[in-house]
């Protein structure tokens, strides 16, 4: 297994080669734009890495990795439209830079382009990849719908929230890894195992993101601290605080979530204080550790070398102790 930077370098080279120079430019220019905005590239790197740990040439998984990244960015274009977001990674969102209709249509094109990338594989592998991809894409849509439904609900449970982040975020991480295993012709058992590893790591990753949104270092996090609080997002921290808080804390938390963005500093400080005093922040860290441990437990079942198990464990640990 190579260092992460080697996979990233190879993937970015392939992504540059994927740049679309065809008509109509008004359809494909936004596709090139969103793919050029950077990001962690976590998912495609995991596809390459997984192919490698099952003793196949990781370059064989390049097209699947590209499909994962194209799909992920398609979902971001449409998420930004639904959220009416003006910025993505510090730059104008596609629908703001062009217009709403362009955002919808270029996003649709990206979904189709992602499927086309699987055509580089032989029929049996193509069928397995496409079947997994269709299941995952539908789950991501379901997760997004749950997320939107939660905005107008006051009875969201922690179990429902965990299902939402599993579908919206974690299943694509699991699928990215399973695609690498499929291309490497790993056993069905190993394909399932590496999917579970990725899915549990994806849940832990999103819980960590929620935690950093409230308690991260403003110098390193890269986003406004307290953004979820300002937007009244019903995160794990919020739901756990409602579960653990006493009557006065619960009342204060509900009041703070009714404040407008004009009172953001008071709101953020007050909510964070309740997250800490209720025990929600500690419970959130415990949940991150739980799902990370679930991912690591799967490693022992995989038919890969001890060195690769250690490397995957180190990768997961680095992901969960990140500050950004």
Ordered list of secondary-structure elements with their pairings:
Layout: H1 4-17, H2 25-35, H3 42-53, H4 62-83, E1 87-88, E2 91-92, H5 94-97, H6 100-117, H7 123-150, H8 158-183, H9 188-215, H10 218-221, H11 227-230, H12 236-244, H13 247-256, H14 264-277, H15 280-299, H16 306-320
Q: What keyword list fits this structure?
A:
74% helix, mainly alpha, 1% strand, Farnesyl Diphosphate Synthase, 324 residues
Shape: globular
In the predicted model, the low-confidence regions spanning at least 5 consecutive residues are none
Distance between the termini: 25 Å
| Tally of individual helices | 16
Mean pLDDT metric: 93
Portion of residues in helices?
over 70%
- Tell me the count of domains: 2
Order of helices and strands: HHHHEEHHHHHHHHHHHH
CATH topology of the largest domain: Farnesyl Diphosphate Synthase
Provide the CATH superfamily of the largest domain: Farnesyl Diphosphate Synthase
